[in-house]
């Protein structure tokens, strides 16, 4: 399953609930304001069992590169990579 997060307003409890449901067969994509979650709750993503990605153009647009933790589990991807992920993972959930 592909989980996409486009907003940054999730509470810690709500985000933790979503991330605990993710398995090693799933992927997470942070895009739009969702890339702020990698800064705000970076530690939670290190515990996520699935692969975690963030859209590079949204990170750059918000000037977040310097704020991301060094041991960041969330990898940057391009729009082309995002298209490949959407073809690879099904079903998809936008949160």
Automatic annotation (TrEMBL):
Cited Pfam families: DsrH
Official protein name in the record: Sulfur relay protein TusB/DsrH
